[in-house]
Every structure is written in structure tokens, then in C-alpha cells.
Sequence to fold (685 residues):
Amino acid sequence: MAGEVAGPPDDPELLARFNPRVASGEQIEAGEWMPAEYRFEALRLIQMHANSEIMGALPEREWIPRAPTLARKMALTAKVQDEVGHAMLLYRVAETLGRSREEMFAELVEGRSRFHNVFHYPAETWADVAIIQVFVDGAAMQTQGALRSCSYAPYARVLKRICYEEDFHIQLGLDVWRALAEGTPRQRAMLQDALNRWWTPIIHFFGMPDRVSPHTEKMLAWHIKIKSNEELRQQFLRRFVPIILEYGLDVPDPGLRLVESEQRYVYTEPDWEELKRVGRNNGPKSAERLALRQAFYRQHAWVRDAVTRGAAA
Amino acid sequence: MTGPLEAIADPDVHAAFREWLLRAADDELVIGHRHSEWTGFGPDIESDVALSSIAQDEIGHARAMYAHLVADADRDTDHLAFSRPASEYRHGIFVERENAGWEWSIARLALYERYDALRLRALGASNQEPVAGLARALLREERYHALFADTWLVRMCGGSPEGHARVQAAIDAAWPDALGLFERTDADERLLTSGVLPAGDPRKSWEAAVRPLLESCGLTVPSASAREGGRRGTHTPEFERLLAQMTEVRRSDPEARW
Amino acid sequence: MTAAGSWERRLDAPRDVWAVFLQSRTRDPHIHVGDVHAPDAEMALVVAKENYARRDPCVSLWVVRAGEIHATTADAAEMFDPALDKSYRFGGSYRKQQQVYRSAWRLSHRDEDQ
Fold:
């Protein structure tokens, strides 16, 4: 629960020096003093991001063995590889805030920690790969791009590399998207169907519109939160709705419309209860994917043991 | 496109070389496919990423070799890779086996890479340009593949009694299939007599390369007979499943471009 | 603790974390690009290749246990910030003065050119 951080209160003198530094845009390095709540919130954000990268590999990796050309086979493997690589970078950043990677991994596979809603949904067809690479990665780019200004320097640094690689993902995605959108009627239908199924989870991705609360204010002042949920969602819509229209596909939300004067989209309010359910690891694929992760984690226990014992020797 | 295959005048030898090259391309495609199945499920994130690169390398190698076997590389490479019935694939059954645990996959990688290195050296030393030049370049990547396999093999064997036992079991299980890589057809005889490929005993050379690695890990070198069939197009149900999955999207819309 | 206060420390990292330094081309220095987890140096180098050099040009990698790295603290950063003008260390300030000298010399020796 936000704000309920156990432990001794922060040294008021150190806190008094910390807050204005961060508010003015200074960054905090690994190993520096930080308020307990700052550490808690930064860790929660980064750990969820790391979890999302490793769980995010699961929907797309199902299509690696099925990729329809050698070029697509290599490119999709490379894309999913990047996601796994991002998890590696992000767990290391989380580690600098005080948790071990082993601990965080065990927590994830046991279903006790969270990952982004979009990765709880099935990737039913090859076209889902295009939708994920363009729209899901596109959505993530909005948040990740903003967080490059995050006050925790190790996270900001890693996000630069991540954003650079995400750009490749979106370009690759647009290539697959284009091949399908300009392809056979069956391909176009497959693409539209995938877009229809993914639309709500993507709108959900940015979270509910922020309530004005002391907690949100603090996250903004500490530059752990950079932009509001709605701002990021609008950013996404402005950039990605035109792509749908350009290719003559239907925007799955009939209520979506651009208010020209404000350059703002109005859209049908999605069911936020579904987002809450998914956030509790109760999405359509949550249990199955966590079970799969857990199975491999257990299968590899002897490998970890052999390697650790050997290292200690 | 012109390839080295134009340079062989004798049609029987030409066909033999095509068959030989197709074996290599199919081996690389199928083992690359198997390696790619580990993406996201490796024992640690760093190795997951590394094996994923190895998978991409192998698929890339396959593509480069298929390109030398078709008239129009842009148009026909994928067709050759995806559109044959199972009986026309020429890979060894070793590479089609499903990944049966990390130790199995690493054992296969270690044994296969030594086989592949010998094959690439033989091709590189032949006068069949430009594919010989391709082979010499690919050796650079295969060197890393072998390094990754060896580094893992040593650590699994040396870390714990369970690790050692599991790796030994994997090597024992892999051995007959590994020997099947050396299955010969008429093509091998033709290539030998025509001098396109060097004389020598590939299997002996391979065993001589593998033995020091296994012994340095305290593993016993198995003795078993080869399980053959792959080089003649006789594959297992594991390959039937692989091929069905690999071609699933293509078959869903045969007119489509992807 | 020295008179200078806490100005240096060992980096706090688990034993199995290795810092990776990448050299792009032979004439370049090795740059810290990130870390890997690995049981030992050899494995660290093997995995570092694909984790950090699969896109970027590379001719050489170094790894060292991150916990072996000694570093100055944030507190010490102020010592790196000069208090007074240090332009005496830079060629720029001397070049400008040279220009002034040369023009003055030419003016005073103008008649000798004739």
C-alpha cells in the first residue's frame, strides 16, 4: 500500500536536503541516501517493469516456432531476446535498491508480484505479433520515454538503451503490420481481429485517470512519476490512431473521436474492473503463464545449484 | 544467381554437392529452431539471451546456404526452407530432437558444434567459391557457439554430483543420434572421388575433437551404434510435429506474403 | 574515516555481479556499458558478448566483479568542481594572448618589411 513503509522514520535533516534536490531535477545515484518511501516506490515501479519484460516475452515467443519466413523467424527471436535482455538490465537496477534478483524472480513466479496487464492476454494469431509490436510496445514507449527523466539515475540510464531498442521493435512491428494490412483478405481480417481483441487492454495499460492525491503529488515531486496516466494515453492515441486509419482499418472503439480544437481524444470508458482483476494476476492467461514460468524455474533449480556451488568452490 | 554449384560440370557430382549442402542448411535450420525454443525459458537471463543469439545465427546460416541452392534467392529461399515434405529434409535426426532439459540442449550444442566446425572447414578448404568463402566466415560465429556450450558443460559437470550425472546421461542419450550425423549416402562417395571435398574420416576427426572436452569434464565417452535415417529423409514424429508447427502460419494462407 | 570525510567506498553489489567494459575499436578505451550476473569471470565474458555486443561494434570486453570497484561518493563530487578560474590549464587562453602579441609585433615591425 502506498505510503505505508515500515521501519524507522527518515532522518529529517537528510530528508530536508533530499527533497529540494530531486524537485529541482537532480538525480540520485545508486548507494546514495534516500527516504524509505522513495526507495519503496522506485523499487515497486522498476520491479514491475522488470517483471513485465520477462513475462512479456511469453505471448510473442509462441510465434517464434511458427514465424512464416526465415527473416521473420530471426527478427521475432531478436525482438523477444531484447525483452529478456531488458529484464536483465532492469532487475539489476532494482537490485541497486536493495533486493536480490533471486528474491524478485522467486516472488514473480510464485504469483506474489505484478506485471503489466497487457501480458496477461493471449496471442492467438500471427497478427497478434504485429499488434503487440506496434501498439503494446508503442504504449510502453510513451511511459518509458517519459521515465527517462526519472530521478533515479540507474533507471534513467537503462531506459535510454531500452527506448533505443523499443524503436526497433516498433519499426519491425510496422513492417509486419504493413505486410498484413496490404495482404490477402484473410490477412487483413486476421489483423483487424487481433486489433479488436487487444484494444481494451492497450487502453487499460496506462491506468485509470489519476486521482489528485497527496501520493500522486509526491510521486511527481520526486520524479518517480513524470506524466499523468491520461497524458500518456493521449500521447499514445495521437501517435497510433492515425496508423490504423492510414491503413483503412477500423478503430475498435466506435466512440473514439478526436476533438480537433484540443488535440485530445474522447473514448469509451473501458471497464476498469477488468484492469483491477488482471492486476491481481486474474487475467485470461495469468495463471497459465505464471505456472509455465514456475515450472521452468523449478526445472532449473539443479542448474542454479550446480553453478552456484561451483562458483563458491 | 550463379553459385558454386554451376562450377561442377558432372551432373552427378553437382547433384551430390547440392545434397551435401542441403544437409548442412537443414541441420542449421532445425537446430536453430530448437535453440530458439529456449527464448524466455533459459536457466538465467544472460544465458537465455546468449542462446537466442546462437539460434538467430543458425537460422541465418541456413538462409545463406539455401540461397546458394535456389535460382532466385529473394523469391525462393523461404520456399525451399518451408515447403518440402518431411521426407525431403536432409538433416540428422539429432537436431530435430525436442529440447529435453538444459543439460540435453547444451550437450547437443557441444557435440553438434564440433561436427559443424569440421564440416565448415572442409567446405572452406574446397575450391567451391563463393560458398567456401561463406563457410570460412561462418566459422567465426560457430566458434562462439562452441565456447558457450563448453563453458556451460564444464560448470554443470563440475558443480555438483547431480549436475555431473545429468550431463553424463544427456551425453549417453545423445550419442547414437550424434553418430547419425555421419550417415553416408552415394553423394559422399561421389564428392570424395571427384575431389570436391577432402579425403578423411569425419567421424574419427569429430571423436578426436569431442573426447578431450568430455574427458576434461570427467565424462565417459559412450560407445553406441549410430541411429541413422535423417540423411535419407527418414525422420521421427518429433520432426513431424516441428514441421507442422513451423509451417502452420504459411499453410493458413498459401497465397500470402508475410 | 579520514579528515576528508566519507569520500570513497566500495560499490555495493552482490558477488555474482560483474561490471562489463566494452571496447568498440582497437583505438578506443573500454567503456562501462552495464553489468551481468555470472558465477565466474569466464562465464561473465561469454554472456557479456551477447548481452552487450550483439548490436554495438566490439573488439574487446573486460569484466570485473562490481563489488571490487572503488568509487568516490556523491558527497565528494564537490571536490571536482573548481572554485577559481583554471583557464591557465587550457590552450585557449594562451592562443588568444598569442594573437594579441603577434598583431602588436607586426605593427611595431611594419617598417622593416619595406
Summary: Chain C has a mean pLDDT of 90.
